[in-house]
Design brief:
Blueprint lengths: L7 H9 L3 H23 L2 H21 L8 H27 L7 H4 L7 H18 L4 H12 L4 H8 L3 H21 L7
Helix pairs in contact: 1-2, 2-3, 2-4, 3-4, 4-6, 7-9, 8-9
Amino acid sequence: MSLTVVSESELIRNFLNGNHASLQTLIERHQSRLFSYIYLLVKDKQLADDIFQDTYVKVINTLKTGSYKDEGKFIQWVMRIAHNLVIDHFRKQKKANIMDNRNGDFDIFDSIRLTDPSIEEQLITSQIHEDVKKLLDYLPDEQREVLHMRCYAGMSFKDIADQTDVSINTALGRMRYALINLRKMINEKQIILTT
């Protein structure tokens, strides 16, 4: 008796047509790999379980709205959702810790980093850099150019002005507007940029 493996595309199509067993098959197919990945990042079984569940809630909602584009990379897409949920968890946890310390009890050791960045901080920092780079694409060309030259190439405003053939004040103005526009996009998209 030969067993045929049903493709992920077909399982997704069946789920969308009302066959909930297809979703269960998809989950079971990737359960071990996904849970291991989450657990490796959070190092807490209960938290890993919660994020695993939240991941599939997001997967189901995205599938139902028709937003998922099937490119044969289902597990990579699911892992990316889980990765983002882990980062969101650490950001919220960090923000909660900051809020807890605002009750007047200042401890110098809370503000000094005694070790290298943890994997959580590295993940968050990496995600912040990725989020900011994506936002840069929405800036006008001249603002993006000045921001790249200043922040990524480390150029002085005098050098930027010379390179772009504008005055220093124009270069400063473009940088200022680039930062204003970035802040506006960050607020609109509710992106948290803290480690």
